[in-house]
């Protein structure tokens, strides 16, 4: 959950222009998501808003499944075994990489908001 919250928060830090489209990943009337590892109402609302905002108008398997979840990748397929839709964690990775640029993305551990609890999980 920390990684999902971290990615969403990076996207919320400023309005995004991704692929020529303008996005705002903060749900209306809400604040930026807390990176606390707790999957509460605000995290669920932020996940749902991310999916809706990112996939506005998209349909079919290339759109994320609108179930307020972010399932992990368990195979090399970009599509979830449970839903048959593209995995939200992949979209989060893609959007963050495009938003902050490749150099910062390669050094996620150096980001101000990076959760220290993730350091041993992703970097050797």
Keywords:
124 residues, mainly alpha, 5 helices, 2 strands
Structure in a nutshell:
By secondary structure, the chain is mainly α. Helix content is 38%, strand content 5%. It has one domain (2-122).
Largest sheet: 2 strands, antiparallel
Shape: globular
Taken in chain order, the helices and strands follow as HEEHHHH
**Proportion of β residues?**
under 5%
Quaternary assembly: single chain
Pick out the low-confidence regions: none
Number of domains: 1
How many helices in DSSP terms? 5
What's the helical proportion of residues?
25-40%
Mean pLDDT: 86
The N- and C-terminal alpha carbons lie at a distance of: 21 Å
Q: Give the structural class.
A: mainly alpha
Q: What strand line-up does the widest sheet have?
A: 1-2
Rg calc: 14 Å
How many beta strands in the DSSP annotation?
2
Outline the secondary-structure elements:
Layout (H helix, E strand, L loop, with lengths): L1 H11 L3 E3 L2 E3 L17 H14 L33 H13 L1 H5 L12 H4 L2
Antiparallel strand pairs: 1-2
